[in-house]
């Protein structure tokens, strides 16, 4: 089993002086679904944001497929898809254009067949020409997942992916994550809901007060 992400002695102290991550050490294995479980404020978003290059680490190191997240940012970012926690989407773009544009940002050639399948897997294809402002919260979350997958990343990070979804939406996302894993994508998501992780995860890490306390 190959380690695809290596996190070593990773710490983050915000400008406020708050230490959100305390010497985190964690290996993520290629092709697994790993869940990060912990209460509000434990450091889950900080850890994901740091690996994805949105938050700068105070000390320690992270490599993604052998590339350092700082010196090799372009390589690491292109390997990663990120589904953020907040529903950060424009209003007037259509679903199709939003997902296609995201793919273009990573320098990938258009692939309408891939985007069509992605939207079908997320039950969004019938909404492909709908403006984002006309979608429900659960649909917007699924658009964020489609955007994150638009450039066919090898690793997918999801920050609270089930939040705001009804039981059918949660099942759809869980099934999609399992399918992606079975096709070789490595998946890392965080949550504070144990029921979301038990059925689909290969491994669980528990974080509290910035420490990984159990793996
Ligand atoms: P939740 O489940 O509520 O999303 P979390 O586990 O994702 O929580 P983080 O968002 O990583 O937790 O926050 C960890 C700690 O770092 C919290 O105490 C939070 O207040 C603090 N924190 C997060 N972002 C910042 C920031 N930009 N500046 C200062 N402190 C921050």
What report would you give on this structure?
- The protein contains seven helices and ten strands.
- By secondary structure, the protein is an alpha/beta fold.
- Strands 6-7-8-3-9-10 form a six-stranded mixed β-sheet, with helices on both faces. A four-stranded antiparallel β-sheet has the order 2-1-4-5, covered by helices on one side.
- Strand 9 and strand 10 form a beta hairpin.
- The longest helix has 16 residues.
- The two termini are 17 Å apart.
- 39% of the residues are buried.
- The mean pLDDT is 91.
- Bound molecules: adenosine-5'-triphosphate (ATP).
- The site of adenosine-5'-triphosphate has 13 residues, from helix 1.
Task: Provide the fold topology.
Elements lengths: L2 E11 L5 E11 L3 E5 L6 H8 L7 E6 L2 E2 L4 H7 E4 L11 H11 L6 H10 L15 H13 L5 E5 L7 H16 L3 E6 L2 H5 L4 E6 L2 E4 L1
Parallel strand pairs: 3-8, 3-9, 6-7, 7-8
Antiparallel strand pairs: 1-2, 1-4, 4-5, 9-10
Helix pairs in contact: 3-5
Bound molecules: adenosine-5'-triphosphate.
| Helical segment count | 7
What is the average per-residue confidence, as pLDDT, rounded to a whole number?
A: 91
| Percent strand | 25-35%
Regions with pLDDT < 50 over 5+ consecutive residues?
Answer: none
User: What about the largest sheet?
Assistant: 6 strands, mixed
- List each distinct ligand once: adenosine-5'-triphosphate
| Cα end-to-end separation | 17 Å
Structural class estimated from helices and strands:
alpha/beta
How many strands in all?
A: 10
Looking across the biggest beta sheet, what order are the strands in?
6-7-8-3-9-10
**Gross morphology:** globular
Instruction: Please compute the radius of gyration using only Cα atoms.
Output: 17 Å
SSE sequence, one letter per element: EEEHEEHEHHHEHEHEE
Helix content: 25-40%
């Amino acid at each position: 089993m190959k380690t695809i992400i290596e996190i070593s002695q990773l710490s983050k102290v915000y400008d406020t002086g708050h230490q959100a991550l305390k010497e985190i050490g964690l290996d993520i294995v290629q092709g697994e679904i790993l869940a990060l479980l912990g209460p509000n404020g434990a450091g889950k978003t900080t850890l994901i944001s740091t690996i994805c290059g949105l938050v700068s680490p105070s000390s320690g190191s992270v490599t993604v497929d052998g590339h350092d997240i700082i010196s090799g940012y372009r390589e690491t970012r292109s390997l990663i898809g990120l589904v953020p926690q907040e529903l950060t989407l424009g209003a007037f773009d259509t679903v199709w254009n939003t997902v296609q544009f995201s793919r273009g940002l990573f320098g990938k050639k258009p692939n309408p067949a891939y985007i069509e399948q992605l939207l079908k897997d997320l039950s969004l294809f019938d909404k492909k020409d709908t403006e984002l402002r006309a979608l429900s919260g659960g649909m917007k979350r699924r658009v964020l997942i489609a955007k994150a997958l638009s450039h066919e990343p090898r690793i997918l990070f999801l920050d609270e992916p089930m939040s705001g979804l009804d039981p059918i939406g949660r099942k759809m996302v869980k099934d999609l994550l399992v399918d992606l894993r079975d096709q070789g994508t490595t998946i890392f998501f965080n949550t504070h809901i144990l029921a979301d992780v038990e059925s689909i995860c290969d491994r669980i890490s528990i974080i509290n007060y910035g420490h990984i306390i159990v793996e």
